[in-house]
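Exam revision sheet. Question 4 asks you to relate a sequence to its structure. Input first:
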Amino acid sequence: MGEGAGFQLGTVGALSLSVVSSVSIVICNKALMSSLGFQFATTLTSWHLLVTFCSLHVALCMKLFEHKPFDRKVVMGFGVLNGISIGLLNLSLGFNSVGFYQMTKLAIIPCTVFLETAFFAKKFSRSIQFSLSILLLGVGIATVTDLQLNLLGSILSLLAIITTCIAQIMTNTIQKKFKVSSTQLLYQSALYQSLTLFVSGPFLDGLLTNQNVFAFNYTTQVLVFIVFSCLISVSVNFSTFLVIGKTSPVTYQVLGHLKTCLVLTFGYVLLHDPFSWRNIFGIFVAIIGMVLYSYFCVTEGQQKAREATAQMLQGKDNESDPLMRAEVGAGVNNDGSPPISQVWSSNKDLRA
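Answer key, structure tokens:
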């Protein structure tokens, strides 16, 4: 199997793992929060990250991956920023309507495109922009209902969008700059993310729910669902870093909207959530956008690969051109006189 085929297989595997694990944890958390009344999302996320760190530490002790430390300040800043973005997204959901929160999530893609274009000189073709527009339109039709605006909620949403975009761009940039794998980066940053949310989680959850996470009645059923949620989160966190490292932050956001459509579908089929023709039409449009985005990404990737191969072959030809020109021009000098060989005299090591 060639390197390109292996990379594509790894990318497909990362995308599949991300979709399956994310949909699974949404269903698990929905049962935990809706049916069992455990509403402490930020604190639960801190436990997710702590379990992820402990699991990776065990894997490191078993030598399943190699620890590759790099700039600690970068890791700490990255971990804290990720934790802050998660907290802000939870606050955005708490202080805004569901429809406005969905608009916040939709805004992450154009914001990421803008930041990568402005600061990283990354170019997005018109085809990619067109497919993203269809995707966002479809998800908007399927998920956005009421748009109730308020100043505090709008500020929190704006901060959530900016921090999430920067954190996801940093995930991709750090992996490439320091040549670390998704596992190595997640292992080094998960503890900082967990501590950030562990400290702020009870306060944020208390602000949003008017309940105390430490005073909650932890029945056996609640504890079982929390354990399941934490175990699934290991796969979710790992696949997130894996997908962004192998693809791009924009592709990860596209994948996130696919998960949204799948969650809506599974919610209707398994949990009998209310569903309308608007939801169905929106999901259908979003799927068209995702198919187009995938097609254009693959097509443009193949085109870039062909161009890179052509440039590499041209470079090899250029390297051999001087020798060819020397052989062709060896018979006659510019003035038409017989050639004078300079091979030996030009070599200083062979002079007398």
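Marking note for examiners. DSSP finds ten helices and no strands in the chain.
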